[in-house]
Amino acid sequence: MERAHENTSLLSGRVVQGNHYTEEAGKGIRRRNAGVAVHRPSNEEFEPTEVLSDKYQSSDYDVIENQLYCEEEQQLAQKKIHSYIWQLEVKRWFVMLLIGMITACIAAVVDICIDKLAGSKYSLVALYFEDRTDNMTILIPFFLWMSIDIALVSVASLLVVYGEPVAAGSGIPQIKCYLNGVLVPHVVRVKTLVCKVVGIVFAVSGGLAVGKEGPMIHAGSVVAAGVSQGKSTSFKKDFKVFKNFRTDHEKRDFVSGGAAAGVAAAFGAPIGGVLFSLEEGASFWNQSLTWRIFFASMTCSFTLNVLLSYYNGNPWSLSSPGLINFGEFTGIGYHGYEILLFLLMGVFGGLAGALFNAINYKLSVFRIKYVYKSVLCILEVIVISILTVSLSFLSIYLSNDCQPITDSVQYPLQLFCGDGEYSASAALFFSTPEQSVKTLFHAHEGSIKPTTLIPFCLIYFMLATLTYGLSIPSGLFIPSLLAGAAWGRLFGIFLHYLSPDLFSDTGLYALIGAAAQLGGVIRMTISLTVILMEATHNITYGLPLMLVLITAKWCGDIFNHGLYDIHIELHSVPLLKWGPPPLSSHVKAGDVMSRPVITLNTIESVGKITEILQQNEHNGFPVIDPYDQSGMHGGTFRGLIIRSQLSVLLKNKAFTSWPTSTAPRRRIELDDFRNEYPRFTEIEDISITDREKECSIDLRPFMNPSPYSVSKEASLPRIFRLFRALGLRHLVVTDGHNRVIGMVTRKDLARFRYSSHRERGLQELPVVSI
Amino acid sequence: MERAHENTSLLSGRVVQGNHYTEEAGKGIRRRNAGVAVHRPSNEEFEPTEVLSDKYQSSDYDVIENQLYCEEEQQLAQKKIHSYIWQLEVKRWFVMLLIGMITACIAAVVDICIDKLAGSKYSLVALYFEDRTDNMTILIPFFLWMSIDIALVSVASLLVVYGEPVAAGSGIPQIKCYLNGVLVPHVVRVKTLVCKVVGIVFAVSGGLAVGKEGPMIHAGSVVAAGVSQGKSTSFKKDFKVFKNFRTDHEKRDFVSGGAAAGVAAAFGAPIGGVLFSLEEGASFWNQSLTWRIFFASMTCSFTLNVLLSYYNGNPWSLSSPGLINFGEFTGIGYHGYEILLFLLMGVFGGLAGALFNAINYKLSVFRIKYVYKSVLCILEVIVISILTVSLSFLSIYLSNDCQPITDSVQYPLQLFCGDGEYSASAALFFSTPEQSVKTLFHAHEGSIKPTTLIPFCLIYFMLATLTYGLSIPSGLFIPSLLAGAAWGRLFGIFLHYLSPDLFSDTGLYALIGAAAQLGGVIRMTISLTVILMEATHNITYGLPLMLVLITAKWCGDIFNHGLYDIHIELHSVPLLKWGPPPLSSHVKAGDVMSRPVITLNTIESVGKITEILQQNEHNGFPVIDPYDQSGMHGGTFRGLIIRSQLSVLLKNKAFTSWPTSTAPRRRIELDDFRNEYPRFTEIEDISITDREKECSIDLRPFMNPSPYSVSKEASLPRIFRLFRALGLRHLVVTDGHNRVIGMVTRKDLARFRYSSHRERGLQELPVVSI
């Protein structure tokens, strides 16, 4: 089962675990050739949720306040403190403005392209449907439809498989990881953005059960990561601006804004976007950052609104704040007694969502095991596409739900209906998913028969399950909403049948069903509630939406996790959970930490540094003072230096003592580090002569002189809170005399997962190489 | 200027600073007789924003994970881990449910009482207005009106002055302090709640320019603090439930829920409530806590909705989610070009808010200096009440704005208008403020003349400025909204006059003006935006509201801080700001910390402990190991013990070595600490015999063995983030050999305030006794 494999598509099908697990001291693994040579597990030993991959790096969110940094700040503070702070602040707001506007433009382009492409397709196919005369000729539009769809989805699939595998799926799991502090390789590159954006246009136009909303969040994040750096590594172009933002800390802050802008663009939900970023970022509430995130999402929603209003022919009407539009709910609200029914729907949504997740999990494991070759991936997409078209066609063909034509139907198909009528089934299947959602929410009572809804609901549920995880960009929101809206409307029709007076608004039930289904699949918490409230444009439904989402989450959580979390677990990402395992105060740092730790001396020889960097892949190295030995023990802890800094120091030959005792050639400045960010030179690519290896480097001006550290008595919850609140990567564990005895990284914490369902208690997860 | 003073009313007029500043080592000051003997500064030396008061304790948000705690957890973990976690979780949710429901009941009672009381008042006075025949007889209703108002506000004032001074004002500053980690004395007591709730009913009914919304947030918080503890110290009743929640950590978490419930009750804004708590609490986003806060605010909004719907005669119509109701905005939304006008209004709102704050600041300083005697406080309230009635009466009397009567007017006064008409001026002045807001928002175009609006706006602005800070419970939202709505509507009328076609919706401009004014006064950020959006019940106005609030905040911030912050600063509360001072990385722990630190040995003599507790008022004591001396230096840092723990140990005679070497009489358990919480026995009240003083206590099982500590190289921003994210009270500073060299507390950080307006740079604030 061993083979070389070029594709490291992540979190969305076709996934290959990292290899050569060498987490000896657990210090934030760094892989040079991640995913090139991959060991595949035999089928028996493969248990995806029981391992942690070593493919992912953590981000260095903690600011390295070393001597250089303090000197730079002190200079600024002495000279012109206000103008500098002011400049930096203006730059930050300006970048957020750019992020919002560019994300909005991308969203508008995607929307317009899909509108044009899908429009042409449906118009063309509809033309041939019109010409149908008997059961044979109706196969002409069927095959036309199918071939167009296959062509479209193939483009999307090719882009993902041969372009950038990480562009597959919705992108939300990857952004969750990024905001949590785990860097998924390639996730914020320009190439990913192009593949994602073009791919989603073709995937949606190709009629698959996918939405374009999730990918917008990914797109916004990539835009943010790109714009904020003022340079493009892919295009080898450095604009020499925003140099101060070239750190993991600033970059992640901007990506928060980008993700929020993406949510704002997708759902017209600027506040929901802010909450999404805060919830996933989960550092402490940083007021000025939150304002900037707010600004980005607001700008994005507004710009998109203007662009789409202009496109729709009503400039300045500002009626399209987001890509998805639930339309106007003009109902009279709800009655108190209906809340019980909503809760019931929440329960059903949770169950349905759990079923969805269970099926998709099995399918994903199957895909990881068997469907990983590029050709197979593309074939699978085509097969699903054929299945989608065939089932849609069959449903339309067999349906006899004819309705009088109104303006709200986008591509009315007459088919076997009388003149002036259209097929209600076709209105659902033969349309973009967004349009179908609106139809289910707003079509007036009686305009869709249960005989149309039942097959639609079942088919769409199945198709959505099959589709998520394919090698195409694919949002999960719309398919979930559609399936839920269908059964919700069915329920509404049933109630209306029982008592037409008490239950008049079937559209409301469709909305609640949609929320329940989405909540059951995603379990996405508080931001989701706000997103749905904003998308509904009507605050009256706030309370029912909240209740339904909480109920759905609780019911679903009995069986499995949310789909995003399932996919993150499937790929063994060392994600930090929301909280520490319960009742774990008796687990101490000494139990969690990795050891022994490789340390460096404050003044260290170049030879030893080179050797250490070459021989292991750790990322952070505690610096100790060998001359300050208390008693007979080792040196005391003085600071922390990370691999990328050492790489810059070696590359720039920042040697303090040459054998000929000349001074260092040039003073190393912060800009030397910033210019290399984020792709630092590998140790293999730095040439160090044997003579240079005899030199030494004084690490003290460069190391972080006060990294967070804890005593070995510190409890697991305490360590967890430090990591979560401050975005740590390394936490040094010291003994009573301030000597380094161990190191805790994100991976050490992630290993201590607590699985309440499996009664595992606090047992440690195996970290194996697969 | 020195005098004894019993009242320590806080943050809202009549404030007296703490005395005898003994912040020698800055370890979280604890005062035994706070506010009893007060030094008043001479007028020259009084500079309220330049000092820190020593009157406030910090809360111990950090969980003390000592040996007892770990043992208790480990026992539970071994026995029945799931049932225990489950029980605790269910209890937490149940408490939140109670908090939501009780807060809603209080809100409903307040609303109904005000409705009845103010209704009776207006009906009675209106009766006498009807009988007027000439200019003399019209003085009868005037004096009647005035005497009723004086009687009502006197009750409110008496309750505050002689009942509980901390019940004055809106309570939001105090809750901000509480959530930030500063305990304002008496703020969450039952007595405060009673005075606040009864007081607000009388103050609002008494016709002052106050709202009942802010006090609801305070009320919710008190309810939360009370319910979660399962006992009442005031009533000496221990229900023996919720013992696990008797720590500062759990209590603050519940108070977050209570504050959110209060916001939900006040504005019908459950999401805004959650955001308010998160924003002010500002620890990192704790997912399960956030859900519970959400649940509390949702429950509260729903319960209040049911109660008020029932009271209004439409059970289950669920149309009153909050006390304030902006009514239905049925306008067509807004046009893109109007956004520029909104921004302009934001600028104006910022300026008007800054003016409001500047006047109120001067007034508050004046009050602190001169109006602090109980009698003066009550007299001042009565004077303002007379002024309010007189100005209102004059405006009504001089106005000639007659409008045909419609249903929407609550207490129509005919006055000098023709039959079937009412005085529009009276509709604004002769009504509860909530009703006036609705009138300004929704009265149809032309129903209020500019000649009515201009005096109303000016008078109300002035009255609101004068009223906030009086010795009565007084919300700030409604007065600000009213003043803003008035000038906003004026602006709308002006635009309508310019172009009736382009600007038809004057109510929208009233809304935007209200938001601008409120934003200018409070500068309350993201939660405020969401609160207003939810109160408006219409998401369409989200973007303009955001824009206006941001603009108003920016403009106002040029001149001064938000009013709540001004009042917090006036009382020298060591509040932690949103972020560290900019460019302060070169300020190190060594510069910030206080020293020398009083330490205890791991096994310490009772005599020394007693002496230390008696002779100083510090709260946290580092524990060092005297036998583990590295080299010739002092002992190494082993843990931290706080005053309340020592008090319990002494009281329970938890001595390890008696002179006669008998074992300790009884094992000390966590419940011993819980039963004393939150009012621990003072050291003076514990009798220690001379013989007992020779005993010793082993502090190791009780101390926190792994408190957060930093090296002296740690920068100010780093320390700040630790405090902010983890809610710290003490941070021990150690040297390279893990020996204690200093201590950083909240006060040490607050001293390093950075005032951008005054070009003060990073200079240290004097901490003086005033």
UniProtKB/TrEMBL annotation, chains A, B:
Residues 593-657, 703-759 form the CBS domain. The keyword Transmembrane applies. It holds the Pfam family CBS. One of its GO terms (cellular component) is lysosomal membrane. This is Chloride channel protein. It comes from Holothuria leucospilota. The chain crosses the membrane at residues 93-118, 138-162, 193-211, 254-277, 289-311, 339-359, 371-399, 451-470, 476-498, 510-533. InterPro entries: CBS_dom, CBS_dom_sf, Cl-channel/antiporter, Cl-channel_core, ClC. One of its GO terms (molecular function) is chloride channel activity. SUPFAM superfamilies: CBS-domain pair, Clc chloride channel. The keyword Repeat applies.
